[in-house]
């Protein structure tokens, strides 16, 4: 087992640290949270540095890099803010990977080069107002009309909603219930009958575009069919790499909180001493380090196992579950170390704590993933309907 990073990965992390200083990412994180504005100005810079689509196929403008390299980069940027890391998440571990793996050459040529230049982005559209965890009950339908497909339905909580250029919409082919009738098509922003709801106001992750999508008799060209009915397994398989990305966001947020708490404990005094001299503070910091490092090992293992492809479901699920719980605990302890200042908006901890809360719901809830982990341990499927 080799825990060392390659020279190229270490150089990438150095260049991201330089960029963070140059672009004042700590200050930018505060500004994004205050204004709720997504940092669009970073897209061109990220594209120039080759950070967008670095895991995608080289023949379409990507760099064919490993999942681990992308995970390390997402983590490094999420230390400042998940919004600063979001373009790397979307373009390297997001639904564009489904198109890279299962799309037609025409779909890849139409979408991937633009993703690598920061001009296109792809959102994943599974959740509906009445269907989240119970995904195989989704109601959005697509009908074959001979020369085109007709899409009808509504999606909820769609990250990138209103801003992304392309939407990978999970939908039901015909009226048949169950997962066998589910596939996915690409809807493009601007198509007739495709509209957006109001932007969500979340507790944290301010600046992240998100809204409901409405499909009212949207004519989808047949060339936009990505996953036909009967191939639901392919759709869910690619989602495991997105789960590693979700976990990398947790590593980043927790790492940022840990660093802030350590620095604060060194300079804050009580009873005439630095608070880092109190054992209660030392134990909290040691516990934070234990949990963060344990999460890193699980997430990096899943990413290493993925190579340039996909991780194992078991490893990705364990990594996401543990990182989702870890980030809530670590940001909470960091906030405690800041005392009253931790609760104040003048300091970063309350933002980090708010940003820590989303990940155990987004990308599949902690509870549903634990069911997946348990079913793999017991070697049998637990049907949630019976
Ligand atoms: C920040 C954020 C970003 C998101 N981005 C996207 C996106 O880009 N695209 C997208 O499609 N969706 C997105 N979502 C939606 C997300 O995937 C769903 O919220 C999630 O899958 C849960 O679905 P739900 O909200 O309908 O909860 P429900 O499924 O109604 O679950 C409610 C509660 O019941 C629990 N529960 C349900 N069934 C079981 C069971 N069988 N066993 C044990 N517990 C159970 C759940 O764990 C949860 O705690 C996002 C959500 C958030 C918060």
Oligomer: single chain
User: What fraction, in percent, of the residue positions are helical?
Assistant: 40-55%
> Any ligands, ions or cofactors bound here, and which?
flavin-adenine dinucleotide
In the CATH hierarchy, the architecture of the largest domain is Up-down Bundle
Q: Separation of termini?
A: 42 Å
Backbone shape = globular
Here the CATH topology of the largest domain equals Butyryl-CoA Dehydrogenase, subunit A, domain 3
User: How much strand?
Assistant: 5-15%
In terms of structural class, how would the helical and strand content be classed? alpha+beta
Q: Domains counted in the coordinates: how many?
A: 3
- How many helices in DSSP terms? 12
**Low-pLDDT sequence parts:** none
Give the overall pLDDT as a whole number.
96
- Summarize the biggest pleated sheet: 8 strands, mixed
Number of strands: 10
What is the CATH C-level name of the largest domain?
Mainly Alpha
């Amino acid at each position: 087992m080799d825990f060392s990073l390659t020279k190229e990965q270490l150089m990438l992390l150095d260049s991201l640290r330089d960029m963070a200083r140059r672009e004042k990412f700590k200050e930018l994180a505060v500004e994004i949270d205050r204004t709720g504005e997504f940092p669009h100005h970073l897209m061109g810079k990220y594209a120039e540095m080759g950070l967008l689509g670095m895991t995608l196929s080289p023949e379409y403008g990507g760099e064919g890099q490993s999942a681990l390299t992308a995970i390390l980069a997402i983590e490094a940027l999420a230390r400042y803010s998940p919004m600063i890391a979001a373009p790397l998440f979307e373009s390297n571990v997001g639904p564009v990977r489904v198109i890279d793996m299962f799309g037609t050459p025409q779909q890849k040529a139409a979408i991937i080069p633009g993703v690598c230049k920061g001009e296109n982005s792809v959102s994943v559209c599974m959740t509906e107002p009445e269907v989240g965890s119970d995904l195989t009950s989704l109601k959005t339908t697509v009908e074959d009309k001979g020369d085109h497909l007709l899409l009808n339905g509504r999606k909820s909580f769609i990250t990138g909603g209103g801003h992304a250029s392309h939407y990978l919409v999970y939908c039901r082919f015909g009226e048949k219930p169950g997962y066998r009738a589910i596939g996915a098509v690409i809807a493009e922003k601007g198509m007739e009958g495709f509209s957006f709801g109001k932007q969500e106001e979340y507790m944290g992750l301010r600046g992240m575009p998100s809204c409901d999508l409405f499909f009212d008799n949207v004519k989808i060209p047949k060339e936009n069919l990505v996953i036909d009915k009967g191939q639901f397994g392919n759709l869910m398989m690619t989602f495991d790499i997105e789960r590693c990305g979700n976990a990398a966001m947790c590593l980043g947020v927790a790492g940022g909180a840990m660093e802030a708490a350590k620095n604060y404990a060194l300079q804050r005094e009580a009873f005439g001493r630095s608070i880092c001299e109190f054992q209660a503070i030392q134990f909290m910091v040691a516990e934070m380090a234990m949990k963060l490092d344990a999460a890193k090992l699980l997430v990096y293992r899943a990413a290493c196992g993925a190579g340039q492809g996909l991780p194992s479901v078991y490893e990705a699920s364990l990594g996401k579950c543990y990182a989702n719980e870890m980030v809530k605990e670590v940001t909470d302890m960091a906030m405690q170390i800041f005392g009253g200042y931790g609760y104040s908006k003048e300091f970063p901890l309350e933002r980090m704590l708010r940003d820590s809360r989303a990940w155990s719901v987004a990308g599949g809830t902690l509870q549903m993933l634990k069911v997946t982990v348990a079913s793999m341990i017991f070697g049998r499927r637990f049907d949630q309907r019976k």
